[in-house]
Specification:
With 320 residues, the chain is mainly α. 52% of the residues lie in helices and 8% in strands. The strands form 2 sheets. A 3-stranded parallel sheet has the order 1-2-3. A two-stranded parallel ribbon has the order 4-5. α2 crosses α10 (260-286) and α3 runs parallel beside α11. The longest helix is centred in the last third of the chain and has 29 residues, at 289-317. Bound molecules: adenosine-5'-triphosphate and magnesium ion (MG). Adenosine-5'-triphosphate (ATP) binds next to α1.
């Protein structure tokens, strides 16, 4: 039995990038009969910068409902904050972590740059992430480049703990997943689409057809009007390349398309066709919030059972 673990932070509203790059692969992994999937909402990670409680609650609820609408109900779905082992193991691991190790983290340096003072949690969250991973004992953790350093830290902490206090943790391998869909921002195709970025260049999963049409219509292309203007060339034509990739990932085809106008119309149709069934299912689930809550409560219960032996072993090894 292999363990598949994915955590999504409710730091914003899920985008088309999250659907193609995360939710779809997460759904595909559920078809592997030898795999056990734990998919969590890492709400604790959404508080490392100043946050609004009501907004966090709303985003968490929306994301919880969207994961169900995206067909992930066969996984164990949970909210991280409802599984106290995450925060507790994070503290135990902090007692094995050096300040220099955290000061080196690129994400901390980037998000803390130019800011006189940050929340302590922005500094320590990689340790929480290590706890998130080690509690479920996955053999392999697939991560994108931006999280690689954090998983390396997870390995360092697990190895150090095992050497110092006894063999408690499975040290996970870091895997780089096959380059998946990487959707770029429509307004700035040199950076990736993000849920925490401003709305203009991100297509959100709950955007209606008119909003999708408007955003795609405004997508940055280029001034090439030649006969072969519609072609993929990431360096010279990042915007057009992105639209072509989105079109294909959404089941459309660019064959016979010669103008940017026609390309944008095709992209709009393909994206809307992907989002409509998801939004229909979302509306049904949103009308029954008690069901959504029950699914996540049940998942958290499962996670408390799964993680308890790991936490207990860590506590005991440390003399608690
Ligand atoms: P944030 O701005 O908060 O970092 P994000 O949209 O980058 O939000 P993450 O929480 O960093 O989302 O990542 C969640 C998952 O979505 C990860 O698996 C990540 O690889 C995937 N993902 C995020 N953005 C994209 C994108 N533009 N294209 C493809 N996959 C993406
Ligand atoms: Mg990100």
């Amino acid at each position: 039995m292999t363990t598949s673990l994915s955590l999504l932070t409710p730091s914003g509203r899920l985008t088309l990038g999250n659907l193609l790059g995360a939710l779809r692969p997460m759904a595909a992994r559920l078809d592997d009969p030898g795999s056990r999937a734990y998919y969590g909402l890492s709400d604790l990670h959404a508080m490392t910068t100043p946050h609004d409680p009501a907004l966090l609650r709303a985003r968490t609820t929306e994301m919880a409902t969207l994961l169900l609408a995206a067909g992930l109900e066969r996984a164990t779905l949970f909210r991280q904050s409802r599984v106290p082992a995450h925060a507790e193991l994070a503290y135990l691991l902090e007692c094995t972590t050096h300040t220099g190790e955290l000061a080196r983290m690129i994400q901390f340096k980037e998000k803390g740059r130019g800011v006189g003072s940050t929340r302590v949690s922005l500094y320590t969250y990689p340790v929480l992430m290590a706890a998130d991973i080690l509690l479920y004992r996955p053999a392999v953790v697939p991560v994108g480049d931006d999280q690689r350093q954090h998983v390396e830290l997870t390995r360092d902490l697990a190895l150090r703990f095992n050497t110092t206090y006894g063999e408690v943790f499975t040290v996970p391998e870091v895997a780089t997943p096959a380059a998946g869909a990487r959707v770029m921002d429509l307004a700035d195709p040199t950076r990736k689409m993000s849920k925490s970025a401003d709305a203009a260049g991100s297509v959100f999963l709950l955007d209606g057809p008119d909003v999708v049409r408007r955003k795609v219509a405004r997508a940055v292309t280029d001034s090439d009007t030649g006969p072969d203007a519609v072609r993929a060339d990431r360096a010279a034509k990042p915007g057009v390349t992105n639209l072509l990739e989105v079109l294909e990932a959404c089941g459309g085809s660019a064959s016979g398309i010669a103008t940017y106008g026609a390309l944008k119309a095709a992209v709009t149709d393909a994206v809307v066709a992907q989002l409509e069934p998801l939004q229909r299912r979302y509306a049904e689930l949103a009308a029954d919030p008690a069901y959504v809550t029950e699914v996540y409560d049940r998942g958290a219960e499962t996670c408390r059972h799964v993680t308890e032996p790991v936490l207990a072993a860590a506590r005991a090894a440390m003399g608690l």
